[in-house]
């Protein structure tokens, strides 16, 4: 009888890939986890219980066939494991690195609920696809037949690229327009290299380009620059258009002194760092120190994953101190607990239950901070922060980074499209399952529909929208043939 390759969670403990020591990793922007060795990947995959109702799969936005590719990995059938993984996820090696597995698949693992420690799903997923690249199993897209239909995609982030992949595999002609000089969106310029090394993103961009996806970069839709195009121009060139711009407008802070020099937006800060550290670009704002933490006292305001990216970047840039202000406590912060732990190991100080009420100096030299306490739950069930009167204090700061989240830009105004319907939050109105808007042939996906969300949800939206476009094209063709 063949030996049972799975259900080894009782005897085999959970073991993550080796994590570099904090003193070492704070000196560079390389990823902090090593790769699994083949034997270790098989061992950790074999811990899966192969449960009848896989909660890991149902809590993954992409509904990845996780138990199947874990079993294939445990059996040493890695190429098959990659093919199963790639069937539902356009970028599994990216999700394996940056998804908050503790809140999604791993957080709902059955053996985790029984105190055996979750299967290391994200790390195995990363290992499978990294191996696939090394072995040459990842090939450029080769459609079985070319089609005459054309789709324009505005935004080269994960949602837009996922849609481009599905459409191109079906033979559709795809053009992606993006405001930046490199595609990838926040994968390229928003997420630091210590979470997602940039060659991982660039090789996917190259795969899409080799497969026939056309990229029009440095193109700000609705702008007046030499490479810019209007929305009407783009719409006229294609049978369908997908709006996948994401949300880039930073939420702002008020209070006395809020306009002082030295108070900067998180995305500006992270983009400058990624350009300088990961691509070697010349960035005047970084070189002048305006967007560089070296030798400075840094205060980051916010408690999400973007705030964690900022504090950990500041540590690597050589800040003299890095503090994070968050108005709730640790248990109520929206960012990944794994990221908080990594930040603390690297020397970040968290000031829980604190909120800024003003700033001193111009350039800024201090944040005026109020201490808070948690009161009664709000409509979402989270306890609302309340001010403790008379608790104000000054937190010294040479650079303040605002990481309070993102809001949608006013696309109907920016693009001169008043008929593009938006919600009261400014997001584009579209069907969640298809991306269809009220405008004929216009679709919208990702954060511009959902509001600021996860990369994995953008990938899901992109794939779903591409399938809907293929169905709509087929339906129009059938009508035309009658």
| Named CATH topology of the largest domain | FAD/NAD(P)-binding domain
Strand runs, count? 16
Calculate the mean pLDDT score and round it. 94
- The CATH level-2 architecture of the largest domain is identified as 3-Layer(bba) Sandwich
**The number of domains:** 3
**The CATH superfamily title of the largest domain:** FAD/NAD(P)-binding domain
> How many alpha or pi helices?
19
The first-to-last residue Cα distance is 59 Å
Quaternary structure state of the chains depicted:
single chain
CATH class of the largest domain: Alpha Beta
Shape summary: globular
**Global structural class:** alpha/beta
Instruction: Provide the spatial order of strands within the biggest beta sheet.
Output: 3-2-1-4-16
Ranges where pLDDT stays below 50 over 5 or more residues in a row are none
Strand content: 15-25%
Give a brief rundown of this model.
By secondary structure, the protein is α/β, with parallel strands linked by helices. It is 36% helix and 15% strand.
Written description of the protein model:
By secondary structure, this protein is of the alpha/beta class. The protein folds into 3 domains: 22-135, Alpha-helical ferredoxin (Fumarate Reductase Iron-sulfur Protein, Chain B, domain 2, Orthogonal Bundle); 150-247 and 408-481, 3-Layer(bba) Sandwich (FAD/NAD(P)-binding domain); 251-405, FAD/NAD(P)-binding domain. The chain has helices at 22-25, 38-45, 55-58, 66-74, 78-88, 92-98, 110-113, 121-135, 158-169, 186-189, 198-210, 231-237, 266-279, 284-287, 305-317, 337-346, 411-414, 447-450, 455-481; strands at residues 150-154, 173-177, 214-216, 240-243, 249-250, 263-265, 297-301, 321-326, 349-352, 354-360, 366-377, 383-387, 393-396, 399-402, 406-407, 442-444. The protein has a 5-stranded parallel sheet, with helices on both faces. It has a 5-stranded parallel sheet with strand order 6-14-7-8-9. Strands 10, 11, 12 and 13 form a 4-stranded antiparallel sheet that branches. Helix 4 (66-74) crosses helix 8 (121-135) and helix 9 (158-169) packs parallel to helix 19. It is globular and about 75 Å long. The chain starts with 21 loop residues before the first helix and ends with a helix. The mean pLDDT is 94. This is NAD(P)-dependent oxidoreductase. Residues 151-462 form the FAD/NAD(P)-binding domain.
